[in-house]
What we know:
The structure holds 2 protein chains of 2 kinds.
Chain A: H1 4-34, H2 42-58, H3 63-86, H4 92-110, E1 116-118, H5 133-154, H6 158-168, H7 170-175, H8 180-206, E2 208-210, H9 217-235, H10 242-265, H11 273-296
Antiparallel strand pairs in A: 1-2
Helix pairs in contact in A: 1-5, 1-8, 1-9, 1-10, 2-3, 2-4, 2-8, 3-4, 3-8, 5-10, 6-8, 9-10, 9-11, 10-11
Chain B: H1 2-21, E1 31-37, H2 42-59, E2 64-70, H3 75-88, E3 92-96, H4 98-107, E4 113-118, H5 121-124, E5 138-142, H6 147-157, E6 163-169, H7 173-188, E7 192-198, H8 204-214, E8 217-220, H9 224-228, H10 230-240, E9 244-246, H11 249-255, E10 258-261, H12 264-280, E11 297-300, H13 302-307, E12 317-318
Helix pairs in contact in B: 2-12, 3-4, 6-7, 8-10, 10-11
Amino acid sequence: xxxxxxxxYRLPGGVAQGLIWGIMALxxxxxFRVLNVSDLTVxxxxxxxxxxxxxxxxxxxxPILALLISFIVGILTGIATGLIHTKLKxxxxxxxxxxxxxxxxxxxxxxxxSANVSANPDRFNLLISMRNVPNAILIGIIISIVHIxxxxxxxxxEQGSAIRATGNNSNMALAQGINIGNMxxxxxxxxxxxxALAGGLMGQYQGFADINMGRGAIVIGLAAIIIGExxxxxxxxxxxxxxxxxxxVIIGGIxxxxxxxxxxxxxxxxxxxxxxxxxxxxxxxxxxxLKVKKGGK
Amino acid sequence: MKxxxxxxxxxxxxxxxxxxxxxxKEEEEKFVIGICQIEAHAALDAATQGFKDALIAExxxxxxxxxxxxxxxxxxxxxxxxxxxVADGVDMILANSTPALQAAASATTTIPILGxxxxxxxxxxxxxxxxxxxxxxxxxxxxLAPLDEQAQMIIDIMPEVKTVxxxxxxxxxxxxxxVKVVKxxxxxxxxxVKLFSFADSNDxxxxxxxxxxxxxxxxxxxxxxxxxxxxxxxxxxxPAGIPVFCGEENTCLKCGVASLAINYYDLGYTTGxxxxxxxxxxxxxxxxxxxxxxxxxxxxxxEICDALxxxxxxxxxPIGE
Lengths: 297, 321
């Protein structure tokens, strides 16, 4: 039963899911790498995005418009974290956890107090669906490219540069007259907006939103970012441009899911799935460190 | 760069070559069945086992290949698993639980999908005016014990009851549906109903403690999370002297006094028999109505009933007999 042709047939599904998680990881990249803080809101805002999108679609909203609405709602969740962090002086990790906790109840309210709402792909015109994996990959790539272009442009503008400066060295940014509090709030907002949009894509892809769908999103996102970085540092030894870095995040997401597909394909007991993904991510995390050690000798 | 390209190209070449070489020389007559289950827990495992046993009884073990997929609680992993099944070209998918069914139904419109441990197919698959027949490649069994009978059971055993607390997980679609039906029935009989939902296993202790203070009796529906944490519920309710009625036998075994038992193994077995009919080509899955568990058995938990000094009516049998 375990044949290579089997694996080849399975991979497209993994790529489609990987693209969606890659887009989500772009959102995490903004907080984790650009702003240089860990934002744990994402486990909640991902579900919020899925819930909003599916509820909008059930209400007859166009699926693309539904994604935009979830993007905006996602921004609000990020702003909440940002304000708790900057105005109430609560550490960023804790602020994220607080909002993530609160979002559980809010997500239930969005889904009309049910844990799981589904949009039947036969009855609704969904943007992407598991029914048509090649199409899902195509749309995923288009949306990824749009994100990369917009983010590349945005972080070149005055405001975007100010956000980057805040992340690089907040004291220096403050000395330049940048309102670092506002910049952090905006960064959290955009990051979670993208995460929620990815949640909306995932909801459409699998045909339902579930209260547990965001569980572990932060881990997958960080894994995608770091896997992407390892790959990109291997190819471009002398550093690379910002849009290559953004692309690497998407590629990281795809590699992560490809690894999962391979684990499932090998028929490893799927109860052990989490252990094996943890091992794979650990290996990727360790590669750069081990290399440095070797070079230093 | 060149080096990298060479590596990538040679890997691709190797893969295509192996792909060409490995002909599908599998034993053609074997039925390949993909099983997607949301998480490991007693009731779901029992259903899967029943399903397998029914098929093995029908075809024999060497005619069947089961691919087990367990999503460890992540709905998105169900999608990955079901995608894999479609890619493998399995003959049938068993979707054990609601998210598994939804992922499978999204993944394919051609491979027959049988659900089990799903409470409401109409809700799960977003079908309007659901009449027990999906009309497409999905059928299966529902784990819904007659809810009005369950609610009546509480009143029969404890006629003087005033306030019933319903304890359930807010993260499960199945539970919320049951809670609604049971609440309406009890309220129509003049009983006050209070709802106590918990988000995850960390909250159960606190929420249950609150519930035993406010209610005479608790009811726990068929709920995966409550089933997993039934010991915690017991550790609060037994010392407080509050009896717990359960929607399902496995939960009742650990924390309840009585239940209208649905046996998940039998439910899975029924599903397996449906699968056999479809695999033999006797019935088309589109024409197969969702089956419910017939004649649920009235059961009670002797140990807890003794501890609470409760005597059960004659027609209840102790769990485990």
